[in-house]
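Weekly modeling sync, notes
Attendees: AB, CL, MP (scribe)

Item 1: holo prediction request
CL wants a bound-state model with zinc ion before deciding which constructs to order. AB pointed out that an apo prediction alone won't tell us much about the pocket. Agreed to run with the ligand included and paste results into these notes for async review.

Input as submitted:
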Amino acid sequence: MRLFTVLAVSLLAFYSMAAEKDRFADVQIQAKPLAGNIYMLTGSGGNMAAVTGPQGVLLVDAQFAELAAKIQTTLQEISANGKIATLVNTHHHADHVSGNKVLGQGVAIIAHQNVYQRLKTDEKFDKKGLPTVLLQQPLALNINNVALELIPMPVSHTDGDLVVWFKEANVLHTGDLMFAGRFPFIDVKSGGSVAGYIENTKQLIAKIDDQTQVIPGHGELTDKAGLRQSLLMMEQTLALVQSYKKAGLSLEQAVAKGLGDKYKSWHWNFITEQRWIETLYQAE
Ligand SMILES: [Zn+2]
């Protein structure tokens, strides 16, 4: 019996190690055509976008280095040779930039100025993938006959966010300024701000129309109505948590009280209801 228990425990340990190792084994990179030669790419980590054509691929975000080969394969399926010409990073988080060291080799990597500052001092980040073109102002590009604008945003998810606006094609990649149908992650430790996040969401809503296809940083392809829902959820839950604070509730008491059934569907494993309340509670 005892031997059996030891065996079972070590087998369990073995399987959980294997699961850890193969975290990316089952991930598939899917490409969804949105407009002409503009695609939304999903896998594990932040949603990507690609513009294909004879000038090479413009890729928005790079997910994880472990997925780089799969991303390359998908790019080969949707373009002549899959060769990347330009890589854009929407911000500095690992699930958007870890692939830089593979996918960004020998090409321009464009990001908000503050992304460079953060990645340069990040010990876990491979410096081969550091951005090479640093933005403080919007940059207009034209690649493969697609006009796009890279727009650095004021502090919101972090202090180094940018969005990608394909005005003519009417497609917007928000980076992590949008978590479709989920509580958003606002990285206050990296300069993010709840008020800034809400303000930027309003700016994005004002920029687009009802036909705009919105690629969120996380979640399904969405639109203006999706951004509005997200804004409404943030405004309502912020007001609720502020009312708790005003009534003298501690953070623990606010968490215990919760947000009610109305917002249950926005809870997910990374930003749970508790974590969202904690984010809102510390906001000014
Ligand atoms: Zn992020």
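Recorded for review: The longest helix spans residues 224-246.
Action items: CL to compare against the apo run; MP to circulate these notes.
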